Amino acid sequence: MNLTRRRFVQLSALAAATSVAKARAGVNVLAENDKPGAEIKWDKAPCRFCGTGCHVRVGVQEGKVVAIQGDQLAEVNKGLLCVKGYHVGAILYGKDRLTQPLLRKNGKLEPISWDEAVEVIAKRIQANPKSFAMYGSGQWTIPEGYAALKLMKAGLSNNHIDANARLCMSSAVTGYLSTYGVDEPAGCYDDLDQCDVLILWGNNPAEMHPVLFSRVVDRRSRGEKITLIDMGTRRTRTTEYADHYMEFRPQSDLAIANGIAHLLIKNGTYDKDFVAKHCNFRGDTDPVSLNGQAISFDDFKKSLETYTPEYVEKISGVPAEKIRLLADLFGDRKLRITSLWCMGMNQHTRGTAINRLVHGVHLLSGHFGRPGDAPTSLTGQPSACGTVREVGTLSHGLPGGRVVANAEHRAEMEKHWNVEAGRIHPTPGHHTVLMWEKFCTPTEQGGDIDTVWVQVTNPGQSLPNLHKLFRGKKNLENKFLIVSDVYPTATTELADLILPAALWVEKNGIYGNSERRTQQWFKMVNPPGQARPDCWMTLAVARKLYDLGLPGLRDKDGKFLFRFTDDSGKEVPVWDFAHYYDTNVDRALYEDYRPLTALKHKNVAPYDELIKARGLRWPVVEQKDGSWRETKFRFSEFDDPFVKKGAEFQFYHSVTKDDRALIWFCPYEPAEEEPDKEYPFWLCTGRVLEHWHTGTMTMRVPQLNGSMPHAYLEMNPEDARERGFANGEIVIVASRRGRIKLPVWLNGRARPPRGTLFVPFFDERLLINEVTLGAVDPHSKEPDYKKCSATVCKLSEEDKLAPLAKR
Amino acid sequence: MPISGLLLTLNDNTVARSETLAALRARSEFELGDCFGSWLPVAMDAPDDEDSRQLHDWIASLPAVEFVDVVSVHFDDDKSPVTEISEVQL
Ligand code: SF4
Q1: Coil, strand or helix: which one is A89?
Q2: Is there a single domain that holds both residue A115 and residue A187?
Q3: Known catalytic residue: A461?
Q4: What global pTM score does this model have?
């Protein structure tokens, strides 16, 4: 290729901008498929990719998605999409879609019928229901997640169900739970329109949540002043827009948060009135527990004494005057301050702790509960909130914020599902890392999971420490992996049974985005070949188990656990795919789930209201005139209908049962694995703008693949020079757990400081998760993908590397 | 060195539009695509982060520019070759 890399990138940038310009002007971005004369039918859907939850208009012509536009009616994105969103329609049409069930026979995948596939799964489960596990994700629709959860927890009395969201936002959950007693953000995206200061705690929204970032940058274009503070371990595209960049040593974000709290108290600038009325103080127990123990304000103050700006500078590398700057901003009540974070704070062995501390800084300073004053986590998956957090598709969870360990919650669910008392097992199942560890361990050595059914995710690429947690399955004869997906992936490579799945607008769906917004769409096109919705697969297996006589699939009256009826009350046999669309299964499952959301005041809107809207933010409450009102700001009297009149703020699910939130002290502690002589670099992993998650969809879109065709090793030029690496040279990245070969990109897209490495995880050919650590946060069980120690060497020096640790 | 794909939303004042287009064309950092309705795609190649920020501010100050959306971004180096994936398949 004669084109220089620079020219290539310039042309890609112009092509990407042109496709967005066309889409915004209403010109068809998939226009090659457009046949003149045939009419395009438009409908709405949330974007299939990230947790921002933009709405798109989907244009369908002759049974095919031919056009995508940003939805002008959507409050989230106001007509704008990012480069991925404009190409979302193309994800349906990759050449290698899976179109029929495949069963591995004598090591070879062979086509089988759906009847056979369903029977194989049902018989595996029937043989040993306790050793069966389901693994899904925040890409499950709400009805899909609800059906899977009910099958497992009520049908099989088995809590071994977990979701990929465990790997990306469970520390945010434990942060909210231990601060407010209830999960999910109090604020919403409107805060981005109204804040004076936006603090980014280790996230890069310019690439990961680009539409939200544009919303902020657009304010500047309109002449508004907004101070952007980027705290990170490497410069990113976000830094380019920041007024202040604070580069901190990995893991030391806890010291920074404590440093701010220290100064707020020392300077007397904390909000005494807010704290006195609405907060209690909390510290860890030994051993640690989610709700910790009460401490006094004086204990809190004393614990913070050592976190002087100079001490924080020593730990974090952030200059003391910048810590003072942060404390001064928080100490100014006239300002509106919003904090945003995502994986940087969550994928952290101290993830729960840093989440608590950021909430604590906002509570202590009173920057809470007014538009623009909010601590808000973002999610990476489109329904991490809607399906995983709200439906509760986690090993300890039940719908609507209930948990299996709570007898009252179990009893409520048993009543709701009309099953006998005691049906739901009180012990949480295996969380993600443990589930896969057990699956990859021989049964006789305690590996008590024999069969895993993976839906809508790709653990063969996204799990940490892949050799141990995924590839370990390879030589274990009695372990059986079922994967339903739309394309071949790193996970289907080891699958014993592959189920072809319908994708996005090939089925009905409901998602819930990062700002509590529930979003509905209808099926618009048929899936290819024999691909079918995951929800149907779950119901068909449930029915087969019922037919085989597994008692758990009957309710107290002996009826099938999943009963769908038509308007006349007659049962619709939805397990027979010919009848799946005779009724709206999504509506029925969602309406069955909806009343369960009231317990924690997360009241989701009726299905029919969702049809009319571009999503509605819960709690959604019916008004006297019969209309439904969404809530933008929770716990604040001016907007939240559940706050008592005159209370101003009320944390009505408070851990301490006194309507107060908790301000925690959590100390800084070194990382699980820090650089040393043998592995002298910090290794961080993450995403890039063009690809979503493990790239299985976006790598099949030529425009996106063309812009970012493969993974790379981002490296500081000085470090590379010392090792004699040239730009583009293929080198080895190694840790104690694995090693891979990658091309070096000097500085890459960011500006990694010396001693740090960054590798994106979207490329299934270059699996960085063979190198990552897999150590988890003690509360959330979320692994740390953002830091472990690693080394790099030339290909010719591989024999000098220390041997890999025993797997 | 940052290379960004930008989407400019232009107002419909024709005089302001032509002034804006002329100003953009006069600078070597920008490559302009075809305008679709109010939307003009632009590739911006800035020498460094600092310049990139200044260029954004400059664009935003042009008379016909209402909004600047960033749709793609690359931080690149002239010397970096396009690595074909076959070269890194191992
Ligand atoms: S990928 Fe995320 S930011 Fe981009 S259009 Fe989709 S939802 Fe919006």
Answers
A1: helix
A2: no
A3: no
A4: 0.90
Ligand 1 center to A615 CA (angstroms): 15
The tens digit of pLDDT for each residue in B2-40 reads 677 888 989 889 999 999 999 999 999 999 999 998 899
Tell me the pairing of strands A713-715 and A739-746. parallel
Here the CATH number for the domain that contains residue A349 is 3.40.228.10
A507 domain residue, yes or no: yes
Cβ contacts of A690 on chain B, cutoff 8 Å: 72
Amino acid B79: pLDDT: 36
For A246, A250, A421, A642, A752, the CA distances from A233, given in Å and listed in that order, are 8, 6, 51, 40, 8
Distance CA A296, CA A279 (A): 11
Amino acid at A613: A
The pLDDT of A609-615, averaged and rounded, is 97
Rounded to the nearest angstrom, the distance between the alpha carbon of A503 and the centre of ligand 1 is 17
On whether any CB of chain A is under 8 Å from the CB of B86, the answer is: no
Give me A239's structure tokens: 């830094």
- Residue nearest atom 8 in ligand 1 by C-alpha distance: A54
Residue B61 with chain A: CB contacts under 8 Å:
none
CB of A513 closer than 6 A to ligand 1?
no
CA B69 – CA A216 distance, rounded (Å): 10
Tell me the per-residue pLDDT of A305-350, one tens digit each, with 9 for 90 and over: 999 999 999 999 999 999 999 999 999 999 999 999 999 999 999 9
Domain boundary among A377, A396, A420: A377
For chain B, positions 11-70, list CB contacts with chain A under 8 A.
31, 33-45, 49, 52-53, 56, 60, 65-70
Which of the following is catalytic: A343, A440, A684, A708? A343
Q: Which atom of ligand 1 is nearest to the CA of A212?
A: 3
